[in-house]
Amino acid sequence: MNNKYVVIEGADGVGKSTLIDTLKKIYPEFDFIAEPYLTDKGRSLMKLIERGKNAYNLLCFSAAREHYENLIKEKLVNKNVIGDRSFFSSIPYSVYDDEKKYNKVRFDLFDSVSRLLGWVKPDLVLILVSDDDERVFKDEYYKGDKKEYERIKAGF
Asked: Which end of the chain is more exposed for a tag (fewer CB within 10 A), N or C?
């Protein structure tokens, strides 16, 4: 298979969707996929999760990601794929603790589950950052919680 898988990563509100909308116009022959929780199965699994960082949440999120990974594999057979988020996004949201520190136990669990599910390794990962922290931390996900924004930002 010679098709490529490119992922756009970054914290909520940094412009991933805006960039992907532009790329869709430039590369109409590519296949674009949304974040894992935007698929029907992903949405169902995400409803089980309250925004938190415990092992249960990680396992539910991993199940949503497994479905997403299967979609990527199917699409790569025929086209290049650009994705909004991937395996890597789970690290800042699940592995970094409230003190913005890497948690090895969480990472080991995350890594084991991801390997078990057989994630698709991207050929290229672009991580977007913003120099407008005030605008980004007001994004719907953070709801003005600057501590949560700083935690996620540190993870990327």
From this structure: N
What is the model's pLDDT at position 92? Answer: 75
Dig out the tokens for 107 from the structure.
């990472």
Q: DSSP readout, 86-115?
A: -GGGHIIIIIB-TTS-B-HHHHHHHHHHHH
In which domain, by residue range, is 72 found? 5-155
> What CATH number has the domain bearing residue 63?
3.40.50.300
DSSP symbols for 16-58: HHHHHHHHHHH-TTSEEE--GGGSHHHHHHHHT--S--SHHHH
Total domains in the fold of the chain: 1
- The pTM for the full model equals 0.73
pLDDT digits (tens, 9 = 90+) for 2-23: 899 999 988 878 888 899 999 9
